[in-house]
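G.,

No rush on this.
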Amino acid sequence: LAGVAIALLYQWIGKSTERGNDLIMDEIHEPGGGVPARMAPLILISTVVTHLFGGSAGREGTAIQMGGSIASAAVRRLRLSAPDRRTLLMTGIAAGFGGVFGTPLAGAIFALEVIAVGRISHESLVPCLLASVVGDWSCHAWGVHHTDYHQVIATLPRIDWLLLAKVAVASVAFGLVSLMFAEMEHGVKRLFQRCIPWACLRPAAGGAIIIALV
């Protein structure tokens, strides 16, 4: 029922925002009509409702869409050139990611690699890093705490080549599993679109399948 409510909400007032992260990525690659400002409150409400009703929703999509939406609203006000619009959208992503996860460096690198993995936009380096750090500081200023992971700092051991080989094989396996997951997710989405034309019924069907499996 919560999924149906979210789908109806997007259908009524957020039709242009339902593409989510893809819309922001497209705007960074090829600036066009911009990202609607209403994406920020919509993704916040839908994420909180999803969590409250037992749904599976990560924080990274929420961070990207809220940061990108707020940055896009600033872009329209400032009437910037295409390269500056791209940079500001990237800083919005960096600020959102750094604030939500409390990892400003990772947030900056994530935003910088949006254009192409492995190719960093050097002109956006300082703005993204500053935005990510300020986003993190802002969360701390509001008393928001992130999960602390216990770290054991010890002297570096000698290199274990067998362990290194195992890690390399495991890394390839993890990459293949993530690729398979992404492809299956797209496949299930296409299947649902084909079998259930009315978008609002798809979350209900998914929820019913999960309940049946449990």
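When you get to it, here's the other one too:
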Amino acid sequence: YDGKEYIFIDTAGLRRKNKIKEDIERYSIIRAVSAVERADVVIVVIDATEGVTEQDAKIAGIAHERGKGIIIAVNKWDAIEKDNNTVKQHTEKIRQILSFIPYAEILFISAKSGQRLNKIELIDVVIENNSMRVATGVLNEIVTEAVAMQQPPTDKGKRLKIYYVTQVSVKPPTFVIFVNDKNLMHFSYTRYLENRIRDTFGFRGTALKFITRERKENE
């Protein structure tokens, strides 16, 4: 596409358990996991007429755990009766069910009519974000500002101190946060810092991974 070569790995349609024997289903999932492992970007294809199935959510969860770029492609969009709120309603429902991947990009497409298939160039954006590196200096400016706006949590009079943050790898972008006591680093505060980093750098379509490490103040 546009002079670039892409390799698509098709997982050959996962179906719901009541439609197919358990052992074939298990084999399909193993193949899907293997395809996720090989991929840079996982396109989770959802049937617009069915909505998000249990299997869709399972594969999306595996892609998230493996830190892959994720695009949710809602197919058969041409088969849906629409008004001004249809896209909004479908988006909200998908976000609600797949709440663990709020960063995933959503595309409404029709493989049959070719509607919006050119938007698949979003793959390039997601690959770029999944491989993005942020300079330590800039990263720490953002984190310092975030800490000033919302104080870190305390426990029994002891407050979390964040010494500095550095990015250690990509695919997915992985950050190490050096603190005084990692027991004070609540999940909600990590999520807050993640949101501030996303506000600045985008990271559309990719998971971010955070590792908390302790160090002494004078180290």
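The mean pLDDT is 89. The helical segments are 22-38, 54-65, 86-97, 122-130, 136-149, 187-201.

Enjoy the weekend,
O.
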